[in-house]
Batch of 2 targets.
Target 1
Amino acid sequence: MDKGIVLFAHNNRQIDYAKMSILTAKLANKNLKVPVSLITDPSTVSWMKESKTFSIAAEVFHKIIITERPEDNNMRNFGDGKSYSAAPFSNGNRFNVWDLTPYKRTLLIDTDFLILSDNLNKYWDVDSDLLISPRYNDIIGEDRTGYLDTHISETGLEMYWATTVMFTKNEYTKTFFDLVDHVKQKYKMFSDVYRFNPIIYRNDIAFSIAKHIMNGYQQIDEYDLPDVFSVTDKDVLYEVENNTLKFLINYKDSNIAASVKDKDVHVMNKFSIIRNYDKLMELAE
Amino acid sequence: MNFGYLIIVSEKPETNYSRLAYALALSIKNTQKEGYDKVALVINDKKHIENFTSTWVFDEIIEWSGAEHWDGRSYMDQLSPWDHTVCLDADMLFLRDYSHWVEYFIKNSELYIANKSFTYRGEEVNDTYYRKCFIANELPNFYSFYTFFVKNSKLATEFFNLQREIISNPTEFSNNFLDRYKPKIIGTDEAFALASKILDITDDISYPLDFPRVVHMKGMIQNWPYPAENCFDHIGFYFNKSGKLKLGNFEQNDIVHYVEKDKVNLETINILEEIAWKKN
C-alpha cells in the first residue's frame, strides 16, 4: 500500500489502549480516508477478544500486526482532571514502526490523538522523508505551556512531539528509527549528554535527539507537521455533542469551558476518552 | 581592491586580548578562502605577540596606542590598512568560510553594521536584557562586533567622525540624546547606534539581511528559563582537533562571539595552530 496510518496499542491495567485505537482509527478513516493498521501485542489481543472488541478491530483496521510487548519499566501517572493513577506505560517500541508498517508512506499517531479534520492529508505529498510535529500547542495557549513542554531540557534542544510522525520508508528514515532505538538503549547516557531528566522514557525526547543528530547537531528550518493541538490530562472531556468536543479546562486553579470542532486534538486525559467513548464513536460514523 | 579583517586590542598587564586576537586570526586563516583571509592587528605594544609561534597570521601588525580598551575601535576607519575592512571583536572564532558575506558587502555597501545576533541554538536573540539603553532611547539595535566599511568613503567618514565625538564626549551626548536611559559607559555599540540615529542613516548602513550571523554568548540572552551570568556555567565549550566547535549539544557554523576570555587557552591555540600549519 502506498500510504496509511499506524497506531500502537499496548494495554495496561488502567487504560484500554486497544479500545481507544478503534475510535482513533475510525475517526482517521472517516476524515483522512486512508487505511489504518494497528501494532499490538498478544496480551492486548487476548483482552480484545475477551472484551469482544477484536471483531470490531478486525473490521476497522486494515491490518493488525502482532509484535512483542516492549519490556519497559516505565511507570507514570495518568491524570484524570484532579485525580491521578499510576500505571505502567509501554511505548518503547515506536522505533519498530519502520520495520512493521505495511505502508510506503506512514502517518504514526498516538491513540489519544483524535483526527477530526482532513488537515493531515496535506502532508502525504510533501517533499520530505520525515515529518514530525515541532511544537506543543496547548488549548489555552502559551500561558499554560512550560519550558519543558517545548524543550527537552533548560539548555537543550527544542522538543519535537512524536504524537504525529509521517515518514517514507527508505534508508534515511531507517537510520532515523535505528537512532531512536539507540537513544532508547542508551537513555541514561543521552540524559547526561543532553541534560534531561531520564526518570521516564519519552519518545518525544528520543525522537528529538535523533532528529538533532540527523540534522548535524543543529536546529534547522525544514518542513514539519502541524503543531500538536493538545488538551492536558488535568482537563476533562465532559461532553460530545453536535460534532463538538466540550472540555473543562483547568486554568489557574479554576475550570473554564472550551470546545473543539473540526480540528485534530490530542486528548491526554485517556479516562475522559473512555467515558465518552460511545458518543465519540458516533462522531466517527 | 584589497580586503582584510581588522582586530584592535589594547593590552594591559592583567589582560590577554592578544591571545584572543591570535586565535581569531588563526581561525580566519583556517577557514576563509584566499583573498578573504587577510588580517591586520592593531595593538598598543608589539611585545605582547612576540611569543606567538605563527605571527605570520597577522598580515599587518600596527603598533598604536592612541586609545585605551575598546575605545581604539572607534578609530577603525583611520587604522585599517585595507580598502575594504571588516572590523571584528577579538573574542570571536571563525568556523567556516564566510567570504560570500564579504563579497556582498564589497559590492553593495560603503558601511554595514550587524543588527542582530543569535543564541548557540540558532535562535535570533530577542531578549533585551543588555539593550535597555537602546530600547529606551529608540536606538537601532547595532552590534559593532562585525562592522564593514570602505576606507575614505564619505558616508563612513562622516559616521566614524561623529561616533568618535560621542566616545570622546560621553556625558554631553548622554545628557542630550540618551536621557531616557543613561548607560554607565557609552560603548562602541551605543556610540555607533547614536551616530547612526543622529545622521539618520540607519536604513543605509544596517538594513535587514540574513547575515552576518554571529552567535553571542552573553548569559542573559540565551532564551533560558533562568538567569545566567556566564553561559559556560551551564553548557560546555567543546573545541575538537578539527577546529569544530560545539556549544552544549549544538554544532556551531556561524561566527562565535564567545565573550568569556578563558575559553581560548593554550590548548585551543595549539589546535588552531596545527590546522593552520597543515593548511599552509
Target 2
Amino acid sequence: MSESTEVQTGSQSFIRVFRALGVFVFMGWLAYVVYSPIVDTTSSHPFKLGLDLAGGSHLVYEADVSKIDPAEVDELMNVLRNVIEGRVNRLGVEENVVYVEQSSFVTDTPVERLVVELPGVSDVSEAVAEIGSTPLLEFKLYDAELDAQQQAVSQSLGSLAESATSSGAVIGDVRINGEAVSKEPPFVDTGLTGRFFERAEAVLPQNAQGSGFATSPFLNITFTAEGGDLFADITRANVGQQLGIFLDGELLSAPTINEAITGGRAVVSGSFTPDEVQALAQNLNFGALPVPIELQSTQTIGASLGEEVLQKGVTAGAIGFSLVVAFMLLWYRLPGLVAGVALISYITIMLALFQYIPVTLTAAGLAGFILSLGMAVDANVLVFERMKEEYRGGAGSRAAATVGFARAWSAIRDGNITSLLSAIILFWFGTSLVKGFALVFGLGVIVSMFSALVITRTLLVTLPDVRLKDKTLWSFLLGNGLNKQK
Amino acid sequence: MTTNIISKRKVYLGIAAVIVTVAIGIIAVFGLRLGIDFTGGSLTEVSYTAAPEKAALEAIVLELGLDGSSVRASVDESGRDAFLIRTRDLSESERVNLSEAVTKMGAAGEVSRFTSIGPVIGQELRDKAVWAIGAVLLVIILYVAYAFAGIGTPVRSWTYGGVTILVLIHDILVPTAVMALLGVWLGAEIDVLFVMALLAVLGYSVNDTIVIFDRVREQLMANRTEHRVEREEAGIMMADITYTLNKPYSELVEAAVSQSMARSINTSVTTMVSLVALYFIGGDVTQTFALVLLAGVLAGTYSSLCIASPLVVAYAKWRGVDVDSTQTIKTI
C-alpha cells in the first residue's frame, strides 16, 4: 500500500486502479454466481428456504429411551431415523428432512428427539398417521372367485357408467350379496402376519451365493413355532395357489405355492433396494419402531403465507439498503458512495455464502440480515470519521484514508470480536431456529469486516489525492458536508 | 462537536436512572406475556375471507372442552381477517377437531398457521434463553476486561467491563418494557424471536460502548508523560514507570465521547433506517422483532454515549480519584 507522497509515480497509481478493477471484476463474477441459481431452477446451489418461508410442516417427536441401554441409544435413534425417513418418503414429500436432535445440556434429563420437516405439506394428518404407523407384513391367499366378482363388477360398472352419464344419474356404491366390493386386490386374509415372526434377516445378493431364489436383495423370515405351523397349514392346503405378501397393504410379490413349506421359514422378495430391505428387516425385528415415539410439537405454515413473508422480507431489505446508502451518500459524499459499493459486496458475498454453505433462510434469519445491513456500514463509518479528522487537519485525502484505517482498526477489532463471540454462544445453545440467526449474524460480522477493510480501502485509495484547501470539486466530494469546519 | 456529557454527567445519569426505574415499573405492573415457545401450548391461526364473530369462535373452542383458551382477532400475512386461538398443548385428534370446527365457520376458512409446543420443549427453550443471555454477558465482561488490560488509567480495566454490563442491563430493560407495553396493547407475547432481538441489542450496544472506550484508551495514551525511575535490585535493573496525565481524566473522557458522537449517531441512524424498513414493509411475523430492536438500538446509543463513560468517571471519583485535575498514576 503506497504511503502519501507528494509525487505519485505512474506505476503506483496504475496498481491502485488495477486493484480497484480487480474488486469490480470479482464482485461482478460473484453477483453472477448468486443470481444464476435464482433464474435457473435446476441449479445445484439454490437458496435453501426454511419451512416458515417455503411453507410446510415441522414435527418434533420425543423418543422414549428410558428402557434402552444408554450405549445403544445412538444406534437405535439412527435406526428410528431411517425407518421414519422411509415412511415419510412413501408420502411422496420431496426434500423432506428427518434428523435426530438431543436436548441441550442445560436440561436436567437428556431427551432424544426426532425432527421431521415436510416442505409443502400443510395438512399434517396424513403424515402424522403414516409416521405413527407400525409396518404391517401380511400373507394373503389369492381368491379367484373374488377376482372374478371384481372383474364382473368393474365391467358392468363400466357399461352402467356409460348409460348413467347419458341419463345424468349418479352411481353410489355397488353391493353384491350385501357385501361391498372393494377395489382391494383379490386376496383374503390368512391370519399370518408380522406378529408371528421371530426374526427377519435382510439378504443382499453378494451373500446369497447358491440361493436360487432371487438376484435382488430379499428378506429371510423365521417364524415362531406357532407361526411356522400356521404357515405349513396354509401352504399345505393351498398348493398351486398364489400367496400374496403385503407390506403396509401394498402387494410386494405373489409367488405360487409349489408344496407345503414346513420348518417355519419363508423368503420375501420384491423389487427392494438393499437399503429398503435392511430397513424392513429392522422394522420387523423391532415389531414396530425400535423406540416408542410421541409427537411433541407441530408447526405448520401455509405455502402462500410463507411466500408472502419472503416477498415482504426481500422488499424490506431492498428499501432498507436504499435508505442506508442514501444516508451515507448525503453525509459522506464520495466515501459514502464507496461505502455503498462495499455494502453491495457485503450483500453479494453473504448471499453467495447462503447458497454454498448452505444456510437455511428463515423469517428470523432474513430479519437478522436486514438488521445487519445497517450495522455492516459501521466499520466504514468508523474509518470515515477518523479520515475526516485527518482531512480537516490538512492531510491529503489518501493519507487521511490510510491513517483512518490504522486508527479505526482497534475499535473495529474489539467490537467485532465481542459480536463474534456472542454469535458462537448463540450457535452453541440454539435450537435450529436460533442457529440460523446466529450463523447469519456471525457471518455478517466477518464479511462486513472484509468488505470495509478490503473493498472500501482498495476503492478509497484509488480516488484522486486532494486536500481540503484545494477547493476543487474533488476536495468537496471527499469532505463531509453537514458538519462545516469552524 | 464538543459535548458536555461528562461535565453534566449527573444530569445524564439521572435521566438513565429515571429510564431504568420507569422500565422496571412498567415490567412489574404489566408483566410479561410468555408465548407458547416458553410455556408450551398450541397456537392456531385461522383466516377467512369473511370472518365470523369472535364470540362464536370462543363458543366453539369451549364446546371442544379446551378450557383456558384465548381467541384474539388479527390479520394474516395476506391481509385476510384472522383469529389467533391459543390453547393448551393439543393432541393430534384435538388438532383435527379444532381445525375442522373453526374452518367451517365464516367464509373460506383456512388454518394458515399452526404451532404446537410440548411443555418439555417449552421449558428447555426457556432454560436455553436464560443460559445464552448469561453466557453472552459473561464473555463480554471477560473480553472487555482483557482487551482494555493495561489501559493504565486511574481505574482498572475490570471497571470498563463492569460498566459495560451495567449499561447492557439498561439496554435489556428498555426493549423488555416496550415488549410489556406491546403485550398490553396488542397482546404481543415473548417468543424465541424476542430473545434473539435482545441478544442482537446486546451485540449492538457493546460494540458501541467499546468504540468509545477505545477512544478513551487512545486519549490516555496520547496525553501522558512517562517517568522512569531506574534502580538496581539484587543486580537486576528495575524500572518504576509512572505516568502523568497532561489533562484531567474527566476532560480526556469528554474528548473521547465528543469524538465518538458522530460515529455513534450515524451508525444508529443506518441501523434504524433498516429496522424502520423492516417494521413497515417486512410483514407481521417480524414486526414486533423490528420494534423491539428499534427500542434497543435507541437505548444502546443513549447508554454508550450518556451512561457508560459518565459512569466510569463517576466510579473513579467515588474511588477517590481526583478526576478534574491532572494527576500521576502508576501502571497497573
